[in-house]
Design a protein that fits this description.
Two copies of one chain form a homodimer. By secondary structure, chain A is of the alpha/beta class. Chain A folds into three domains: 53 residues, Orthogonal Bundle (434 Repressor (Amino-terminal Domain)), CATH 1.10.260; 132 residues, Response regulator (Rossmann fold, 3-Layer(aba) Sandwich); 125 residues, Response regulator (Rossmann fold), CATH 3.40.50.2300. Chain A is built from 14 helices and twelve strands. Chain A has a six-stranded parallel β-sheet with strand order 2-1-3-4-5-11, with helices on both faces. A six-stranded mixed β-sheet of chain A has the order 7-6-8-9-10-12, sandwiched between helices. In chain A, strand 8, helix 12 and strand 9 form a beta-alpha-beta unit. In chain A, helix 1 crosses helix 2, helix 1 packs across helix 3 and helix 2 crosses helix 3. The interface between A and B is large, with 60 and 59 residues. The structure holds a DNA duplex (16 and 16 nucleotides).
DNA sequence: TTGTACGCGTTATCAG
DNA sequence: CTGATAACGCGTACAA
């Protein structure tokens, strides 16, 4: 199957390549007649303009890069990601953009991947998901004037394009909710400390408490297993009314660990998570959680990036989406 | 931030562009001296070769396309996908390929997307995930001589590049397993009938039974909700020992429906699924399921496609991966 | 060992 | 309204 080019179409239609190009981008006013000729030739020959060549001359790829700033195994295992990936993919497609995915097995390679995409000219801009703290990729992006949007991450830097939820506030409200329910010994199983999300949710947790007992805070990986293990340890050392977990994965591990340690959940101990993974509703007891509107976040991020790329005098903004406590069986109150 | 090109590097290093090109692809034997000069210039100027231009001349994109043949919402919601996506992403990256994602809100657009990617020259080949039956995209790919690999799908066509598990066999074995456990009234909640996976697993189910009772088979969407509803209906109409579900999502819905209808699972009724989603282990009772090695399938698929693209006399093969029954609490036997 | 010249397939500019 | 022509940035025969 030979690839046919604009020249062959031109020849077949007895016009010049430029005319064909014009017809296809229906830009200029071309006579009805030649239009028809060209379109006929296009269809007849099964011509499809080559995106690469087009990109080379227009200096645009019509492609968005998506960077997962956790190693792939972890990123995809976390139910948080599918939702956001889905919405970004949908919006991109709607707006005529392709989506280039980057991830890697090596923790620190992803930022390199992001820059590569941009430098090599494979994408017009990138969306960066939930990064760790203290990386300077953002500065590099700014310095190079590369279009980008951050998702799920708070920074000291202001005035950068970002879609986020207020994790401090969300966590604060979660704890207040639990206090109102009558719980007193409120433990918190956080995620890895180098992640902003962990830090912020811990901040909100602390802020909502009258007195802060460090022994009630534990750190887990982003996994069921981590939640399970930290809960085992925690329950062996402390008396606890309720465990608030950094996300629903961890919460589900905590739930099972508590159950396996002989606790009746929620009678003996309550559990609460973050994110509202689909899974949260299916657990027994179903899990009270703080819903993060991931689909919406993905949509906003994709739309913002596309606007940054296409609209000359728009350079992004800060969008904070609001969270919502979804009350289920795991926190009936005391 | 101006983009610097090979010419500027050449000028800076006082050589010709071709020399720079050669150094960067360290192809030819270039003198040590000029090598150094060039590399220094490259570093000094921060040069990165433009992938688009390179693609245009080499006629290679070093990019793989991944087509999700379900609408995005559904595809990403299914825990089956993250695993396979993850492994495909990892392998691609390892082998120096980028990954272009296609999905859409419209059911029937995805095949169009696949062909677009190829025709427009954005990718060197595509991986097609679990398609429905009766679509002719495969024929089109073959006719056009486009490199592709199918994943999770069986066809009448032979001799096409595919990575799959034997769904008929897996389902057959699952039912045999249940029979051995002492269950007799074995219901099957299948997926949408137009999917090959639904058809095949139903075939295996039938094959393993002495007598086939159509009233025990139900069809659900690929969702928790579907499993829930079909189970409600089923239990209202039939007496059932165990429900085998097309996947773990559906099974988890079935589980909850049974519980909410007053059944004690697994004492009153047993449940079994397919896929071994991470979630399956966290349910209560934990779910017996047929593990599909999704990560391995993704790896194989990516590797095969890359081989097809890069090795001239390799045109793919059929790889069948084996499944495994993971026995958990939901099927203790009678 | 290195430089020159051409071409990849398209769009944009400039005539006409 | 349409056709040459030049460029986009790079790789590669061919020549030197």
């Amino acid at each position: 199957m030979k690839k046919i080019t604009i020249k062959e179409v031109a020849k077949y239609a007895e016009v010049s390549p430029s005319t064909v190009s014009r017809v296809l981008s229906n830009d200029y006013r071309i006579s009805e007649e030649t239009q028809k000729k060209v379109r006929k030739a296009v269809k007849k020959l099964g011509y499809h303009p080559n995106a690469i060549a087009r990109s080379l001359v227009t200096q645009k790829t019509k492609t968005l890069g998506l960077i997962l700033s956790r190693p792939a195994e972890e990123a995809f295992a976390n139910p948080f990601f599918p939702g956001i990936l889905q919405s970004i993919a949908s919006i991109s497609q709607e707006k005529g953009f392709s989506l280039l995915l980057a991830s890697s097995r090596d923790y620190h390679k992803e930022h390199e991947e992001a820059l590569k995409m941009l430098r090599y000219g494979k994408v017009d801009g990138v969306i960066l998901m939930a990064s760790r703290v203290n990386d300077d990729i953002v500065k590099q992006l700014i310095n190079n004037n590369y279009p980008f949007v951050l998702v799920g991450r708070s920074l000291e830097l202001n005035e950068i394009p970002i879609v986020n939820n207020d994790n401090i506030k969300a966590s604060y409200q979660a704890v207040k909710f639990l206090i109102n329910k009558g719980y007193e010994k409120i433990a918190f199983i956080s995620g890895p400390q180098e992640y902003v999300v962990s830090q912020d949710r811990e901040k909100g947790y602390k802020k909502a408490l009258k007195e802060y007992n460090p022994a009630l805070v534990r750190y887990s990986g982003f996994s069921y297993k981590g939640g399970y293990r930290q809960t085992q340890i925690l329950l062996g050392e402390q008396e606890v009314d309720v465990i608030l977990s950094l996300d629903d994965m961890i919460a589900s591990g905590a739930l099972r660990a508590a159950q396996n340690s002989g606790y009746d959940v929620p009678r003996d101990i309550a559990i609460m998570g973050f994110n509202d993974d689909p899974m949260a509703a299916y657990l027994k007891p179903s899990l009270t959680t703080v819903r993060i509107p991931v689909v919406k976040m993905g949509e906003k991020a994709a739309e913002m990036l596309i606007r940054i790329i296409t609209e000359k005098d728009y350079s992004g903004e800060e969008i904070i989406v609001s969270t919502e406590i979804i009350e289920r069986e795991s926190t009936p109150g005391i």
